[in-house]
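Supplementary Note 3. Input sequence used for the single-chain structure prediction.
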Amino acid sequence: MPARDSSVVAIIQARMGSSRLPGKVLKEVCGKPMLVRQVTRVRRASTIGQVVVATTSDPEDNCIAEMCRKFGIPYFRGSPLDVLDRYYRTAGLFGAETIVRLTGDCPVIDPRLIDRTVHSFFEHKADFAANRLPPPFKRTTPIGMDTEVVSFDNLARAWCEAEQKHEREHVMPYFYQQEGRFKVVLLDHEPDLSHYRLTVDTPEDLALIQQIYEHFECTDEFSLDEIISLLEQRPDLAALNAEVVQKDFLDKDTRFQ
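The predicted structure, written as discrete structure tokens, is reproduced below.
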């Protein structure tokens, strides 16, 4: 596949609502909103043609739309609850033939891992590729590096056929819950780094991310390897959020009730 194909679109879902850290996507990290940090890193992935933020039509997310306009980030506003529908409509609006799904709480995501997942999707002619799937699959990448890739045609199929609430809210379960329905490629990471938590869902997570950025002098160019090297040298940093429990992928927004 050619690099910088505009039909390969990374869509980052983001909203202000968060049960454990409200407004987390706009929390400042070294003077910039966390979501801007993430967009900057994703844009460095050589396989990504466009990076788009998919936020909601909820008035509380007006500030995300304002931030996107301020920093020149394309965005779309859709359903607060049916995130699959939000992805489908965002992909259609921006002419995506291949969708790379990311969540807006991963401000140190490594563009090389994104590229690896996208390349694998094309090389294996997969319907769906990911570098992490929920149990019973074994995670090997750190939390905060999750990348999922799907074609627009298959996303449209899921949009039409997925009926369960968690399938609509978490976007991609329809692709891997039933064995044999789609050709799924799961990329493992060597060595296993699953015990590291590099996402932001709590104040403890944010404290770690801020420390990481400050260590690298507030640039956006450090790699996952460099982060792991830092945490190995500074176990006190890794301990900042070591007790945080990751939410289950079957957890649903309470507004679904």
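The two ends are 43 Å apart (CA to CA). The chain has one domain: 8-243.
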